[in-house]
Amino acid sequence: MKVCVIGTGYVGLVTGACLAHIGHHVICIDNNEEKVKLMQQGQSPIYEPGLPEIIQTAIQAQTLEFSTDIAAGVAHGEVLFIAVGTPALPTGESDTRYVEAVARSIGNHLSTGYKVIVNKSTVPIGSGDWVRMLVLDGINEQRQNSAVAVESSPSEERGAVSLSVDSSAEFDVVSNPEFLREGSAVFDTFNPDRIVLGSNSARALSLMQDLYAPIVRREYAEQQQADPVPVVTTDLSSAEMVKYASNAFLATKISFINEVANICDRVGANVNEVAKGIGLDSRIGTKFLNAGIGWGGSCFPKDVSALVHTASDYGYSAVLLKAAVEVNQQQRMVIIEKLQQTLKVLKGKTIGLLGLTFKPDTDDLRDAPALILVEQLTRLGARVKAYDPLVSQTGIGQGLSNVIVEMDAIHLADGCDALILVTEWSQFQALDYAEMAKHMANPAIIDARNFLDKAKMEQLGFYYVGVGY
Asked: Are 466 and 264 within 8 A, CB to CB?
């Protein structure tokens, strides 16, 4: 099947590369020429485990192309994915101007033949009908421009020009939300919990099911003998709501366990044991019950805020979701308070951060808790150093203000009055903490992810503080 993916961020690039890997002919479109040149050379502009190998294999198999020519992409694709960013505005609304520009541009370039236009971007509820309206606006603009061209052409050329504008475009819009986790996006594409398709068109839904058939049959899954992937087919608005509701629930679950952890701290209970005990209840489950510094990244904050704003637009105050956001914001300060309880005055102290990215196995710093810590520690007069396995190597950290980015853990520890483990990189389990303790002015560590073994760290000479116990 011929596919066009417009936008090559985390979602677009992973989607396009993985669809090419399973045999579809994919053209990925981006308006950044330097980025396109990089991808044409088989290099990934983002860090995502397994992605560079898939891109290179698909390019060699001639199933994956990259271009800045949206007209060529639209002409090529039977299925057109809109996968551009929808960042949060200060009001909490999603910034949909990139989706709007792409939808109009698709309309500008539609000609004969049937197309399925897929919203892969996370868009506000009701955006399916809005995208349809914008595509139709683009088609009308195309026809008006063509009509003007016909009128201004010499009479002998008008027949040829008019032939190209008489053709009618036929399309349907589908909502196909993504559920990819940064750091495991390739795995999630081939091993999804479910695929959600929203449309009022049986024809469009049938085409999308054909597109995903190899994935549904788990031909590329880790466990190929497992049952087929569940496919949820529903209306546009419900599909859009599934994405927001999923992320909002997970964010709320994390805020809940952090609230429980804060109570545990006060009554002497151990939140790790509490989480284990409640997680064994099949109605609750064990996932997303890790107490710590809270959630960040590009999805949870944006999606929860967008859902709160949507509720407000329709006259409803989403009290529970607002509380989840408030707890998450306060949780950063809980870590600062634990550090103050350990060191008392922070002014003039040197604090080392283990980890900068919002989660391991990604280079994404968007809404990372570490950035709030840097801001607050600097405000309180502390010097801040940091070591991150990826940020330190790539040079991304050089653009960070008020933080000294070290190249290894030993240099991070040198002269520190305390460490804060911010990101649970697997590499941090194997660090030489005994050696690090020797280099510190005061061997104390605040484990903001409850990631390390308390007894072991104390044996190595550290004063250890966790969250919720």
From this structure: no
Residue 313, amino acid: D
pLDDT tens digits for 346-400? 999 999 999 999 999 998 899 999 999 999 999 999 999 999 999 988 777 666 8
Q: Collapsing DSSP states into helix, strand and coil, what is residue 119? A: strand
- Two tokens at 366? 């968007």
- The dihedral built from the CA positions of residue 58, 59, 63 and 65, taken in this order, carries a sign that is positive
**Residue reference for tokens 């109605």:** 283
Q: Give yes or no for a contact between 167 and 275, defined as CB atoms under 8 angstroms apart.
A: no
419: helix, coil or strand? strand
Last residue of a domain, one of 201, 234, 267: 234
Beta bridge partners of 198: 175, 234
Helices 271-279 and 236-267 sit at what angle, rounded to 10 degrees? 140
Confidence (pLDDT) at 163:
38
* pLDDT score of 165: 40
Measured CA to CA, the distance from residue 392 to residue 408 in angstroms comes to: 8
| CATH code at position 369 | 3.40.50.720
For residues 218 and 229, the answer to whether their CB atoms sit within 8 Å is yes
- Are both 138 and 56 inside the same structural domain? yes
Residues 149 and 250 placed together within one structural domain of the fold = no
Which of these, 173, 174, 189, 192, lies nearest to 19 by C-alpha position?
Answer: 189
* pLDDT for the residue 399: 67
How far does CA 341 lie from the centroid of its chain?
34
| 234 three-class SS | strand
Show the tokens assigned to 24.
Answer: 């579809």
DSSP string, 98-114: HHHHHHHHHHHH--SSE
The arrangement of strands across the sheet holding 79-82 comes to 64-67, 25-29, 2-6, 79-82, 114-119, 170-175, 195-198, 231-234
Residue 26 domain boundaries:
2-234
Asked if 375 and 335 touch (Cβ cutoff 8 Å), the reply is no
Could you list the active site residues?
299
| pLDDT of res. 142 | 85
Cβ distance 25 to 73 under 8 Å? no
- Sites in the chain below the pLDDT cut of 50: 159-167
Residue pair 345/424 in contact (Cβ under 8 Å)? The answer is no
pLDDT at 126: 85
pTM, full prediction: 0.90
Count CB neighbours of 82 within 10 A.
26
Looking at the structure, do residues 226 and 146 belong to the same domain, yes or no?
Answer: yes
